[in-house]
Design goal:
alpha/beta; Aspartate Aminotransferase, domain 1; 14 strands; 2 domains; seven-stranded mixed beta sheet; globular; three-stranded antiparallel beta sheet; 17% strand; 356 residues
Length: 356
């Protein structure tokens, strides 16, 4: 039975990525050695790292003056690395969900943090509007996509202070104007590669301004100077990321991927809005294209498990909502084909005929 993978992360990857990574694990670049046992300083792997950086810059149209580095620790480590490297006296954060809240919490270890706005009052089901960023803040931090609650910021803010964004779950899903950001980071396990590697895109001129000593491994400049090779990088996830970037380029790049993602999301949201058994949980204008959250209508709430069981028989996996909110979550990352979304819509229609 064909599986339709809606897991939020680790999540679906392109078949090309799986196939090429599998080959490299068996025999990397014709060396007769596995990718898992080759030196990260071998010319073969250095070439992988160089090409991955080059494709990052090409596909996102990253301007001159920015560095792309690959680290360990996931996005959660960046919650501390960002303030370690950028925080002098004050930072500003937009609180739009659990990961934004965790990033804000870490920043408070470094000094004054201004929460410019929060959507916690309504279980993070919308993106706050009309907020003001203090002009004396060292940076302003946003989380562009909220995997748990299903909201997304799909615009590049004009900001008078350095703008920092956690783009773990929507990087490469739409074109972005990188020049508006001082730093972009994200864990790879949602839209790019297996868990284990974190990307950081940083404008070089925002670094080196804090007076505090920064531990060597937590200093961005360390990894820029050593081209992500200060310590052994997560070689397999970096290689897999390269394959995903190659696949993305073959699909027409980020602008074309956005068109596909809009079609996939519209297909599912239209069914959620039409089907009386289900309802969305997010303000429509802030709905995510990557993580589509919905619940059973109150009249049918007793059928939630039964629907998940039906979905499982159709090969639809990973649909259970996050444990903190319940309901359903369909993660429609770049690698998920529209056929999988159609299979989910068909299951929802079938369930409606059975129960409504």
């Amino acid at each position: 039975m064909k599986k339709h993978n809606f897991y939020a992360g680790p999540s679906i990857l392109p078949q090309f990525t799986l196939d090429e990574t599998t080959k490299a694990i068996a025999n990397f670049a014709g060396t007769g050695l596995s990718l898992m046992e080759i030196s990260h300083r071998s010319k073969e792997f250095v070439a992988v790292m160089d090409e991955t950086v080059a494709l990052f810059k090409e596909l996102l149209n990253i301007p001159e003056g920015y560095s792309v580095i690959f680290l360990g620790g996931g996005a959660s480590l960046q919650f501390a690395m960002v303030p370690f490297n950028l925080f002098r006296t004050k930072a500003a954060y937009l609180n739009t969900g659990e990961w934004a809240s965790k990033a804000l919490k870490e920043a408070k270890f470094f000094g004054e943090v201004v929460e410019v706005a929060s959507s916690k009052d309504k279980m993070f089901n919308y993106i706050p509007k009309g907020w003001t960023v203090p002009e004396d803040a060292d940076y302003f931090h946003i989380t562009t996509n909220n995997t748990i609650y299903g909201t997304e910021i799909r615009q590049d803010f004009d900001c008078k202070v350095p703008l920092v964004a956690d783009m773990s779950s929507d990087i490469f899903s739409r074109p972005i104007d990188v020049s508006k950001y001082a730093l972009i980071y994200g864990g790879a396990q949602k839209n790019l590669a297996p868990a284990g590697v974190t990307f950081v895109i940083v404008r070089n001129d925002v670094l080196g301004k804090v007076e505090r000593p920064i531990p060597t491994m937590l200093k961005y400049q360390t990894h820029i100077d050593k081209e992500s090779m200060f310590n052994t990088p997560p070689c397999v996830p970096v290689f897999a990321a390269l394959q995903t970037l190659k696949w993305l380029k073959s699909m027409g790049g980020v602008a074309e991927m956005e068109k596909i993602n809009i079609k996939k999301a519209a297909l599912l949201y239209d069914e959620i809005d039409r089907n009386p058994m289900f309802k969305g949980t997010v303000v429509k204008e802030d709905r995510s294209l990557m993580n589509i959250c919905f619940v059973m209508d109150e009249k049918y709430i007793q059928f939630e498990k039964e629907f998940l069981d039906l979905a499982a028989t159709r090969g639809l996996v990973g649909l259970k909502g996050h444990r903190s909110v319940g309901g359903f979550r369909a993660s429609t990352y770049n690698a998920l084909p529209i056929e999988s979304v159609q299979a989910l819509v068909d299951a929802m229609k079938e369930f409606e005929k059975m129960k409504a």
